[in-house]
Amino acid sequence: MNNYIWITAEKEFIHNYPDAPKEVLYLRDLHRHMFKFKVYLEIFSKDRDVEFIMFKHFVQDCLKKLPYNLENTSCEMLANKLNVEIKKKYGYRNTMIEVSEDGENGVMKQYNDAFEYFINMNTVKK
Fold it and tell me: What is the pTM assigned to this prediction?
């Protein structure tokens, strides 16, 4: 059984969707959203080996480093960028990251980094 902590965060950004379908053509222009994040991080002890308030501060710091104008960055791309930073600090733990635009529509991405690390380590040894 996997155990996770989770945190929420939000940050205002502008972005656009250059290849938006005709039905939502207006998304091709820069527009503002309050992006909302829910981030799950796998933990390995019975008593939380990662303090969730400290994890929340880390995620907020990562978001502060992103430019206000994300250009054509999607929710999926934001989740990927955040996961890269999480992996740098917390190693190969499984994560799940939800990113939404204004809490209305979004994506949930699951990263099985612990499994991928195990597979890569076994491949390297051969």
Answer: 0.88
**Domain boundaries along the sequence of the chain:** 3-125
The torsion of the CA quartet 7, 103, 17, 110, rounded to 10 degrees, works out to 40
Query: Which helix or strand (DSSP H or E) is residue 115 part of?
Result: helix 113-125
Give exposure, 76-107, as e/b (b: 16+ Cβ within 10 Å): eebbebbbeebeeebebbbbbbbbbbeeeebe
d(CA 54, CA 51) in angstroms, rounded, equals 5
The whole-number pLDDT of residue 43 equals: 94
The rounded distance, in Å, linking the Cα atoms of 112 and 100 is 21
| CATH code of the domain made up of 3-125 | 3.30.479.10
- Spatial CA neighbour of 2 closest among 39, 41, 38, 37: 41
pLDDT (average), residues 76-101: 96
